[in-house]
Amino acid sequence: MSATASMPRCEDRAGAVRVLARLSGITKRFGPVTVLEGVDLEVRAGEVHILAGENGAGKSTLIKILGGVHADFEGTIEVDGRPVRPASPLAAAALGVVVIFQELSLVPAMTVTDNIFLGRPRTRAGFVDDARQRAEAREILDRLGIDLEVDRRVEELPIAQQQLTEIAKALAQEARVIVMDEPTSALNAPEVAKLFTLIRQLKERGCGIVYITHKMEEIAAVADRITVLRDGRLVGTAPAVALPPGRLIQWMVGRELGEQFPRHDVTPGAERLRLERFSVPDPQQPGAFRVRDVSLTLRAGEILGIAGLQGSGASDLLLGLFGAHGRRVQGGVRLDGEPFAPRHPTASITRGIALLTNDRKASGLVLPLSIAANTTLADLPALSPGGWRRPARERRVTEAHGRRLNLRAAGIEQEVGSLSGGNQQKVVLAKWLQTRPRLLLLDEPTRGVDVGAKREIYALLDALTAEGIAILLITSELPELLALADRILVLHRGRATAEFPRGEASAEGVLQAAMGQSPVDRS
Length: 523
Fold this sequence. Notes:
CATH superfamily of the largest domain: P-loop containing nucleotide triphosphate hydrolases
Strand order of the largest sheet: 6-9-10-3-11-12
Oligomer: single chain
CATH topology of the largest domain: Rossmann fold
Structural class: alpha/beta
CATH architecture of the largest domain: 3-Layer(aba) Sandwich
Radius of gyration: 24 Å
Mean pLDDT: 88
Shape: globular
Number of strands: 22
Helix content: 25-40%
Number of domains: 3
Distance between the termini: 43 Å
Strand content: 25-35%
Largest sheet: 6 strands, mixed
Number of helices: 18
């Protein structure tokens, strides 16, 4: 197998613009709700076409129609000028259309190799040729610049490496139209740079890329054209140079946004949390630690940012504090001045600690349940005195949280799995706010969230700190971290390497510390 065989074989025809795929008049309804109405989209060879819009605008539904997930729709699809109607993702892939969904479609118990070739195994004499598959998987990953162990089970990988596996799986299918839905949501800066290099290579080969992202810096880095949806309708399509950030946001939200990071001066209150030489062992490697000897303090009304690259241990720090690692954690924890042993999530919730994880679908929500059921799930004992549920009370609190968070849904009985990513995130926030926390542990609270919803979350965090809630915040977006955090603690390979007050923090200093260098070392 040649090195180039692992990449999509897109025909690169010079001269006139070649349209690889055209969607015309696409309309989609779920029961009485119209989520798309008369939407057009054109994908050209050798371009990156940004599909933009707030959460709930219809972006995910549109790409699911193109990718064969939804076959019941009105309108037409043409691929290479031929009318098509893909009835499944496999049918779409046979047409040269592959979608890398934000929701990972991997089988956790299978290896990286098996996931890459899922549904199209390499065989010999009717049997799966494991040696050939492993060799091809290694070549594909090397070609993409992805460093993964091909024999490891996906469930053993952190979320960032799972996302890289998903990207490798899709790009190994030799597609001509490649849709990427928030592909960098779990990637660090070096991994994002590798992905952008790959996108440039795909463009040079004549592939058409549809790219969905809520990060303005990514749009500026890769966009050739931009199509904007709002409330299921087409706002317009324009060259990227004609849509600077301010105008693009106006197209997306229908109005100008105010200050991006609302953060009022808050005088911190009493000490809410103290960690002394806090350590989290690695359950898969006896004697190893994911977090080692981290000490910190956090006061009421304060946001302490936790920065670090992949493998820094930042997420494990929050999980250990929440009780997810059980009795394995070591070191001292004091909550409101009293000793606290984080042995189980239930004990943490009882003491006023809430954790929003970085994967809302896997560990934040129960997707088949309703908005109301998810919102009240963590607080059912308080809402159900005597062991009897009170549906009317559950509805009232859910509606109250929905109003506060500007939740967009057909009703509180709507399944959470049918909501947009941003609205799902609001339901997770509502669930934890219902527990009346004093300490909020937030791991990537704005991942996969549009600019309008991001600002609403920023305003919420500002209001919560004004109420005296203390927040530990992890975010991979440095501008967000620098703007929201009162202080920033940086981790590198499980150890704290630096702490910055708000006025002294800089992107350069944080990154240097995250890579294990002294922030003052300019060499």
